[in-house]
Every structure is written in structure tokens, then in C-alpha cells.
UniProtKB/TrEMBL annotation, chain B:
UniProt subcellular location: Cell membrane
Keyword Transmembrane helix part of the UniProt annotation: yes
Superkingdom field: Bacteria
This protein's UniProt keywords: Cell membrane, Membrane, Transmembrane, Transmembrane helix, Transport
Name used for this protein in its record: ABC transmembrane type-1 domain-containing protein
Keyword Transport: yes
GO biological process: transmembrane transport
């Protein structure tokens, strides 16, 4: 008796839920139709590649596909840890990103502070506009300029050095220069644009604070130290954490354009190795395993950064 | 009191001088490379080989530009880039707004699931190789369609546009609904016209990204006739196989050098961006602001 009553009631719930779904589908019919192509795109170009990561655990055969390929467990991960280049790749990836952070992080802040101090609006606008420009120039153009400016025969840098009696430097044959070049290009291209976020944070500081400080006799330097910098701190912390989270996201397309085998010693990073092993040598499974390893470390960094940010500033990134 | 005030003013002047000097330095460092390549590419061969050009062109010589433009490959690639940029941006804007509108609707049951479904892709991805294999399995390698589709949607831009849609007044939508308009009509006739500023900013970002893109284009496209101009520029600045074509040009025309050809090619590929940049700059910045505030 009770059982029957329960089953009918659950049936009723199911029927009403079905009716609810049907009503929703009718009511929001157009929303579903609009979203459908987006759904298809994400399944094809975002979720299918995620599923494709399983080939890191397979001896992937292009003809047999994922379903027909043989499973090999962690073989390719082990192979990567025993790879003679493992240490070099990890070191290069970390160093290139640490240096980028050390130089690339404070410079936009300094730039924003300088822009903020400029009182001539015309000059401010023009100089800001100029400083964003390189962000919109393609990586190919930036690297093309770097390659030719640093060329030992016709590059302007060596032409100027020769005026001071210094012999031509082979910047792209000597591994010592690569990290400097990479970091410099990153700063040159990105600093002005990265400053925007700080500029808008600075614009939000109440002018009354400065008025009060002026009455108390604080000069511009003191205003900077006691009003501007403390007001900017929350933004700085969040941006720092965002940057820390993206520690392994090397701008590898830039490296691919700049490097050559003579400077792999400092220039070869995880991403470029994945690119060469996977797309040039067609060693798909191995390259996917290296990429997945990098992805896992990267995710831990992002997650850790967010955890820290929640602790430090009570503002998490998500 | 008076003494104190004077000292402060003096400090402020030094401070201001330092600030202006730094900013002017940054501007010179930014602009000089562009001026230099322009000057070299326009100078006559003798001045360039004697290393006399540092700031402004010496002499006047368009041979480098003529040489670059006479390569059939460059013109075809230029056309391809325009096609990928224009059509690609339209496709991207279409898909982005189609995603953003349903997500902005509070009464859409699927909203939360769909949001999670999209946001996951901000944190997880398949990486280079699985992505390449998907394109291969879809038989899209070496097609224009692959270039239009592979980067068609940016989840980040969807979120920005969705936030903008959410900020629009709800009354218009409601009154249109009472008049019997369906969601598609509301989207096309009310939402999109009200969203021109954000669509302009996002569209510009998509367009710039597509104009400058080269990495996946080089991997997905083998057919010379489908390559965008950035991919051809990669060969000009890096690949020695291009040098043979260049040598031919050098033999035929004494007024060009390899370096002037490179610089002319760089200018030709970045000229459209530099030309539109001063006029559209405010939209770029607006785009960042919207993104920063909303997310």
C-alpha cells in the first residue's frame, strides 16, 4: 500500500519534472538554439582535445586512433623524467619565467606611477598611447626586428658597438644572451599595456587624500610613498598572484621564432620541446605526456596562487 | 615656513624632471625601432652598406618595397590575412554573442551548467598535440575553415560580453516580450544595437589577434596559397629557403639588400595596425577596462 503510494508519488514528481523540462524547452527555445553552435564548438575544440590527453598513456597510433592504440601506463612520463634534457628543460622554463617576472612585473607599475604624476594631459595621452603600441604588433614583427637588430653583420646594435671599437657579438649563437633578449622583448612589448590596469587603479584614488597631504606639507615624493603606493597595493598583490599562477606559460611562439640549435642550452623550454617532439618528429604520445606534465604543474601553481590570494588579500581570483 | 615651502618646490621640480625624462625615454625606446626600420627600408643602398643611417632615411629608394610587393606569394598571403581577419572576426563575434546572450539570462535553466562548462576551459585544455590531432581527425588540415574555426571563441571575451549584456536595463526586454517578440528578435533588435561599444572593443581584439596570428596557421596549413602574411614573414626573417628568391631579386636589382627587404616586409605587414592604431586606441583601452572591471 505504502509502497504503491510512494511509487505513484515519485512517478508524479517525474512527470511534473518532465513537464517542467518541456516547458523550459518551449519557453527558452531560442536560447537553446542560439547556444547550440557554441556548445558544438566547445565540444569539438575544447573538450575533445582534453579527452585526447589519454594518448599520453598510450602508444598512440594515428591509424588505429585512441580506441585501437595500446595502453602503456606511465611509460612516457618515466621516459621524460629520464630524458637527458629533463633538467635543462625544467631549468630553462623556470628561469625564463622567473626573470620575466622579476623585470616584467615591476616595470608596468613604475610606468603607471610615472604616468600618474604627469599633469600635462596632452603629453600624458600621447605618451600612454605610444606605450601601448607594441602590444598590438605581431610577435613575428617583434622577433624579426630583434633578429635583424642583433645580427652580427647588419644589425644596428653591432654597428653601434663597432663605433666604440667593440667586435661584433653573435647574439643568437651564444647561449648567454638568450634569456636577456627574451625578457627584454617581453617587457618592451608588454609593459605599456600591462600598466593600464594600474593606471585605472590609480585614477580611483580620492583626490581629497592628496589635498589633505599637501596641507600637511607632504611633497610629491612623500605623497607617492604614503598615499599612492599603499592605495595601489591590493591591485599589485592580485596581479602578482596572477603572474605567479602563469609561471609556466612561456611565450613559446616567440622562442620558436628566435632560437636555433646552438642556443638550445638556454632557450629550449618545455613548450618548445613539446612542439618539436610532437609536431616535427610526430612523437605524439611522448609530447602529449610532456605537455600534460607541464599542465599539471601549471595547475598546481594557479591553484596555489589562488589559495595564497585568498589568505593574503581575502580576494580570490575566482 | 617660507624656507620649508621652497625646499618642497625644489624637490618637486627634480621629481617632475625625472618623471618626464623617464616617460620620454620610454616613448623613444618604443618608437625608435619602427623609425629605424622605416628609414633603412627607404634609404639608398650605399648609405645602408656604409652604416650611415641611424635616424632618418638617407636618399630615397622604394626598391625594397617594390621587390617585396613583386613576390606573388606576399600578395596572395596578404589577401589571405585580410580574409582570415574579416571573416574570422565576424564568425568570432557571432559565436561570442550567441554564447553570451543565453548566459546573461537569469531565467535560463541551463545557465549555471553552461557557465561552468565554459569556464572549465579557462583552466584546463588539451594542449598542443591533442588539439592538432583533433583538427587532423576532423580532416580540417590545410583548409581555410580550420583557420576560421580553431580560435573562433575566446571564453574570456564571452564572459566580458555576458557581463555587459547583464548590465543592460531589463525593462526594454520585458516590454518587448509583452509585445510578443521572441528571444531571437530581442537579441537582434534590442540587445545587439545597445551593445555596440563592447562589440567594437571585442571585435577589435579578435581582429588584431587574427591579423597577428601565425603559429597555428603554420602548423595547420601546408598549402602555400592559403598561408597568411605573418607566416610568410616568418620565412623572410628566418628561413634560408626564402633567400634563394631573395638572391634572385638581389641579382636583378642592385638597389636592394637582404636587410632592406626584411625591413620592408616588416613594415608592410604591420602597417595596417600602426595606421589604424591612433584612431582606434581608445576602444582598445576601453576593452581592457571593461574586462578588468567586469571580471
Amino acid at each position: 500500500m505504502l509502497e504503491r503510494a510512494m511509487s505513484t508519488s515519485s512517478q508524479k514528481v517525474r512527470v511534473s519534472r518532465m513537464r517542467g523540462i518541456k516547458q523550459e524547452l518551449v519557453k527558452n527555445k531560442w536560447l537553446y538554439i542560439m547556444f547550440l553552435p557554441v556548445l558544438v564548438w566547445f565540444i569539438l575544440f575544447a573538450y575533445w582535445p582534453m579527452y585526447g590527453l589519454v594518448i599520453a598513456f598510450q602508444k598512440y597510433n594515428v591509424v588505429k586512433g585512441i580506441s585501437g592504440s595500446e595502453w602503456v601506463g606511465f611509460k612516457y612520463f618515466k621516459q621524460f623524467f629520464e630524458d637527458p634534457f629533463f633538467f635543462r628543460l625544467m631549468r630553462n622554463t623556470l628561469l625564463v619565467n622567473i626573470y620575466s617576472l622579476i623585470f616584467g612585473f615591476p616595470i608596468p607599475i613604475i610606468l603607471a606611477l610615472c604616468f600618474n604624476e604627469i599633469k600635462n594631459m596632452m603629453f600624458k595621452k600621447v605618451s600612454q598611447t605610444i606605450s601601448y603600441l607594441p602590444h598590438f604588433i605581431s610577435t613575428v614583427v617583434v622577433c624579426g626586428m630583434a633578429l635583424s637588430f642583433l645580427s652580427p653583420s647588419v644589425g644596428i646594435v653591432n654597428i653601434i658597438l663597432s663605433k666604440f671599437g667593440i667586435d661584433s657579438i653573435y647574439f643568437f649563437q651564444n647561449p648567454d644572451y638568450f634569456r636577456t633578449i627574451y625578457v627584454f622583448l617581453g617587457v618592451w612589448q608588454g609593459a605599456g599595456f600591462a600598466a593600464i590596469i594600474y593606471i585605472s587603479a590609480l585614477a580611483g584614488i580620492s583626490p581629497e587624500l592628496y589635498e589633505a597631504a599637501k596641507i600637511d606639507g607632504a611633497n610629491r615624493w612623500k605623497q607617492l610613498c604614503y598615499i599612492t603606493l599603499p592605495s595601489l597595493l591590493p591591485t599589485v598583490v592580485i596581479m602578482l598572484l596572477l603572474n605567479l599562477g602563469g609561471m609556466l606559460n612561456t611565450d613559446f611562439t616567440k622562442i620558436i621564432l628566435l632560437y636555433n640549435p646552438t642556443i638550445y642550452e638556454t632557450a629550449d623550454v618545455l613548450n618548445t620541446y613539446v612542439y618539436r617532439k610532437g609536431l616535427i618528429d610526430a612523437n605524439y604520445s611522448y609530447a602529449t605526456a610532456v605537455g600534460l606534465f607541464q599542465g599539471v604543474i601549471g595547475f598546481i601553481l594557479v591553484y596555489g596562487a589562488n589559495f595564497l590570494s585568498r589568505k593574503v588579500s581575502k580576494t580570490s581570483l575566482w | 615656513m617660507l624656507l620649508g615651502k621652497k625646499r618642497i618646490e625644489k624637490g618637486d621640480i627634480f621629481f617632475a624632471i625625472f618623471i618626464y625624462a623617464f616617460v620620454i625615454g620610454v616613448c623613444i625606446l618604443t618608437l625608435y625601432p619602427f623609425l629605424y626600420i622605416l628609414s633603412i627600408s627607404l634609404s639608398d643602398t650605399g648609405s645602408v652598406t656604409r652604416n650611415e643611417v641611424f635616424l632618418l632615411p638617407k636618399g630615397f629608394n622604394l626598391a625594397a618595397f617594390e621587390t617585396v610587393l613583386s613576390y606573388k606569394g606576399i600578395m596572395i598571403a596578404y589577401g589571405n590575412t585580410i580574409f582570415y581577419t574579416v571573416v574570422g572576426t565576424i564568425v568570432s563575434l557571432l559565436l561570442t554573442t550567441l554564447a553570451a546572450y543565453p548566459l546573461s539570462r537569469q531565467d535560463w535553466k541551463f545557465r549555471n551548467i553552461a557557465t561552468i562548462f565554459l569556464v572549465i576551459t579557462l583552466w584546463f585544455g588539451g594542449g598542443i598535440i591533442p588539439f592538432y590531432l583533433v583538427i587532423k581527425n576532423l580532416h580540417l588540415l590545410d583548409t581555410r575553415l580550420s583557420i576560421l574555426l580553431y580560435a573562433a571563441i575566446s571564453t574570456f571575451y564571452i564572459i566580458i560580453v555576458r557581463s555587459y549584456f547583464e548590465s543592460l536595463p531589463k525593462e526594454l526586454e520585458e516590454s518587448a516580450k509583452i509585445d510578443g517578440a521572441n528571444d531571437l528578435r530581442i537579441f537582434i533588435q534590442i540587445i545587439l544595437p545597445l551593445s555596440k561599444p563592447v562589440l567594437a572593443a571585442i571585435g577589435l581584439y579578435y581582429a588584431i589577434g587574427k591579423w597577428n596570428s601565425f603559429f597555428w596557421e603554420m602548423i595547420l596549413i601546408n598549402n602555400e596559397k592559403l598561408l597568411p602574411v605573418q607566416a610568410v614573414l616568418v620565412r623572410i626573417i628566418r628561413d634560408s629557403s626564402f633567400d634563394r628568391e631573395m638572391e634572385k631579386a638581389l641579382v636583378q636589382n642592385a638597389a636592394v639588400l637582404p636587410i632592406t627587404i626584411q625591413y620592408a616586409a616588416i613594415i608592410i605587414t604591420s602597417l595596417p595596425i600602426i595606421a589604424v592604431y591612433p584612431f582606434l586606441q581608445k576602444y582598445f583601452v576601453k576593452g581592457v577596462m571593461i574586462g578588468a572591471v567586469k571580471s
